[in-house]
Every structure is written in C-alpha cells, then in structure tokens.
Design brief:
mainly alpha
Length: 165
Amino acid sequence: MIAALSIMGVGGAGGVAGALLAPRSVARIGIGPTGFAVSPLAQVPLLCAGHGLRWQIVLAATLAVQLFWATAAGTSQRSLRQAVCNPAFQGRMQSASTTLTAGVRPLAAVTAGGLVVLVDVRATLAVGALLQVVPVVLLLASPIRVLRKIPARAAVLSAREGAAS
C-alpha cells in the first residue's frame, strides 16, 4: 500500500512539473509534437515490471515522466483548441472534448477487465500500450506534427475563409 502511494506521489509530482514547464516544452519542441509519443513508451517498464524496490523506483520514475508529458500535452492541446475555436463555441468544444475523453474511461475499464479474464494482465497491458500508438500515428499523419506555435487568431480565420471559398 505504501509503495503504491509513493509511486502515485512521485507520478503526481511529475504532473505538476509538466504543468509548470509546459510553456518551455512547447517553446523547445513545438505545440504539435508535445508529449504525444511518450505515453506508449512509458508502458514498456510496466510490461516488464517485476517484484521489489528496484521496480517500484522504475515504475515511479516512469509514471512521473508519463504524467509530466501527459500534462504538458493536455495543456498544449487545450491552448491550441482555444486558439482555433470560435470564442462563442469554446464552452461546447471543451465540454465535447471532456465528454469524449472521460466518457470512454468506464468503457475502457470494462473492456480491460474482460480482456484480463480472457487472457492475462500482461497481455491486456500490451494491448493498451499498442492502442496508445494510435494517437501518435494520427499526429504523424496530420499537419499538427510540424506546428511549432499556436497560430494567431487572424491566421486561423483567414485559413477558414480560404478553405470555404
């Protein structure tokens, strides 16, 4: 129990650091690529984990890195969505995003639980890690991958007008 709380505490510290350092991360590597590729990679130690203090330390460090980048990516994504979304629709945009991301969690939990019953825990974790590659592939196939900074509102509006005509 104490080990789990320690791992979660170290992970939480990584999340706080990600929130604080998101602007620097974006300035360094760009708004588009921030954090997307880390989540699947962070699953590898979880798939290999064993017993003992050494693995607890590895899992704590991995969770801290994963939550650092997840928080930085989330901050970047919300900032980008707010920049490109018409202010009149921002509440709906954020509600839809939150509903989609949070709404699938119970379904994912039930699916993972069923998969654990059919196969085993490591196989289920491997499937989860592979599914986390999907957003990375979508990012690589989109123009967002090269986006270095948030576009100015005027640039977004002129791009929309050009696409509409």
